[in-house]
Design a protein that fits this description.
The protein is an alpha/beta fold. Helices cover about 25% and strands about 40% of the residues. α1 crosses α3.
Length: about 150
Amino acid sequence: MKALLQRVRQARVEVDGKVVGAIGQGLLLLVCAERADTEQQADKLLAKLLKLRIFSDAAGKMNHALQDLDGQGLHGGLLIVSQFTLAADASSGNRPSFTSAAPPEQGRRLYDYLVAQARAAHSTVATGEFAADMQVHLVNDGPVTIPLHVTS
């Protein structure tokens, strides 16, 4: 699975002018399932992002993970948005190819699986709408943006 993780002060997703998912401080995860991906990659991705130490401690060092925030009286949300364009291959020509992206049925199944696992593991999880034309609004904190690629 490919993902782009952004530490945010706030983020929301709109579909047809209506907010379908929103968080305050936390992480925005743009995620793409690829053809060979399985639930195992989704599990690895979730485990990594929940433990990734990218939130500042009292000294200003990135020492806290999303799952640590609740224990400190802070609230950290997770907004998960499907984005098949992360599979883009623009190495030849001027039109990207998306052939490595999972077919829609597989992509939806893995996205739904990831969201269910995230909700079981974390207190605040919001989502976009799979395969919808979405507008994603965010205030990137830092900015901190980290690409993740999980393979088997």
